[in-house]
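Need tokens for this chain, all 327 residues.
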Amino acid sequence: MSPPNASRRTVSLLFPAFNEFENAEGMVEFFRQVSDTYTSYLFEMVVVDDGSTDGTAERVWELVRPEEAVQVIRLSRNFGSHAALSAGLAHVSGDAAISLSADRQEPLEAICDFLQQWADGADLVWGLRSIRAQQQRVQGSLAESFSKIFQRRSDVPTYPADGPSQALLSRRVIDALNAMPEVNRNLWALAAWTGFDQRSIRYEQLPRPYGTSKWTFTKKLKLVVDSFVEFSRTPLEWFVWAGGALVVIGVLLLIVALIAALTAAATVAVVATICGTVAVVGGINLIALGLLAEYVWRVGDDARRRPLYVIESVARRDAGSAGPVPD
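Here are the structure tokens for all 327 residues:
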């Protein structure tokens, strides 16, 4: 079942995990399935424990075997999935890395599709969901709308309009991402920005076996803001157009108010019109200032040069070694 033209190259399977104790066994089992199925490649398992409090890292280490190549990276607190992925990419030793969900929602066949595209010369292979395991109408619609708008109105037109779920990244994409210092980041947008040969595969997402997703609406909303601030000036352009439209509307309202002021009965209507106009203009100004502050805040974050994440510990075991190797 190995893809054609495969050589004995190493592929890192990267799992960001936050409080995934119950899913640890599934992660390890999937790693073994991949290793046993696609034998033309060597595989290593890289788990980034993103500040878990349930013993996720310890459980993974208990389950892996001495002959398996494994890295378990523990962050000092929860930094978020994109920071955890970045920490993993900074440590993977493979010629390519495939990101995977800790709750095991990618089918085994998707790995073959990833590897086939990579063997065919792709540097970045997007994993797109043809069917979502959990259909959330409102959040799902918002996510799809964001991806489509971002793909059209950002500096990264290669960003998938359907929204990426996972990805395979070649070594040169990994090295390019590791050189990028942005703190508030959409890792997938940064990957798309690198250029290189980008392709896509589709798969049906599997249902989550345990627990619920830690990818909350608040985290999704922050990712949307980070994405537009880093890669698009479109929000600022929207307010320029809104300001121009308000100027036109304001001039028309002033003309109407002037005409209506000639009759005493229209006094209340004139006052209401003026007050409403002031409220609308003031509200838009405050929103625009808030948006500008988001841009400025992120510039400040990058200028402070704080690390994207803080590593508490790294345990590594090469294939066939006797025990963990602390970094």
